[in-house]
Amino acid sequence: MLAYILKRILLMVPTLLGVLLLTFVVIQFVPGGPVEQYLAEAKAGLGGSAEGGGMAYRGAQGVDPQRIEQIKALYGFDKPAHERFVQMLGQFARFDLGQSFFQNKPVWTLIAEKLPVSISLGLWTFFISYLVAVPLGIAKAVRAGSRFDLVTTLLILVGYAIPGFVLGVALLVIFGGQLQWFPLRGLTSANWDELTLLGKVVDYLWHIALPVTAMVAGSFAVTAMLTKNAFLEEIRKQYVLTARAKGLSERQVLWKHVLRNALIPIITGFPAAFIGAFFAGSLLIETLFSLDGLGLLSYESVIRRDYPVVLGSLYLFTLIGLVTKLISDLCYVWVDPRVKFD
């Protein structure tokens, strides 16, 4: 087991290097880098023209070349690309994610400021998906082929087929715009500080209802169908027939024998689903509902070419994803001792 863990940890290094190298190379060919963004903002502030596009960038017209070189040195673009990449790897090895170009804050500080919003969305999405989908999947497996199974399958497939962003737009238009039952943006109201404790809880749940509903749809469908299929596979095995032949009740067979084996793929997927609820799929939802979380931070950083934030957050999320995958694999051994990695 120890050798397997060490091997997986060592394999994380080339994976991280590959992800960072590919992203870094792509960034070098994207027009309108930080220097151009800075000049465009300066031109806009002076009322000048700030049209951009590749090598023939017009926003730099009329700017002192010495000033442009100073700006390049400020952002570190006075060095060759390979030197900047090696320097970045050295910083990341010390878990130094660098400084934002445009917000004058360390990347760690920006991530820490946005993390509570993403955690809030992720926790609700994770718990609602599993607390509802797992019992529903069990009920569908027990009643396989019944009208209940067919109706719920149809509803689940419809929910899965609708992208979370499209569902979010529909929820905003109907419940936020036409009916005005829910707010259109943010996690709290403007008078949050004036509310009582109960009022703050109600206000928070009122704001979180629509974005969580939009995020739950896809993960809910996958978990419910996975649970159903796992239960159906276990119910058809020989040990279930043996348990019934010994006179055990259907409840004992399902909850004492079938449940333990059927939940193995569900439980082992907990770490990945838990982390994925925070970082995956939240970009469009946070942008749509104007929630100041990690997804919106990443989107704005890409638009503004804030490369330290883009690469720093990518490095952190990739590392978390690799560690989570390792934990998921180790959960197989914890749940099912029959699994041997060697």
From TrEMBL:
It is a multi-pass membrane protein. Its main location: membrane. One of its GO terms (biological process) is transmembrane transport. Keywords: Cell membrane, Membrane, Transmembrane, Transmembrane helix, Transport. GO terms for cellular component: plasma membrane. The chain crosses the membrane at residues 9-30, 115-138, 150-175, 204-227, 262-285, 314-335. CDD domains: TM_PBP2. Residues 115-328 form the ABC transmembrane type-1 domain. InterPro entries: MetI-like, MetI-like_sf. It is found in: Cell membrane. Belongs to the binding-protein-dependent transport system permease family. PANTHER family: INNER MEMBRANE ABC TRANSPORTER (PTHR30465), INNER MEMBRANE ABC TRANSPORTER PERMEASE PROTEIN YEJB (PTHR30465:SF66). This is ABC transporter permease subunit. It comes from Comamonas aquatica.
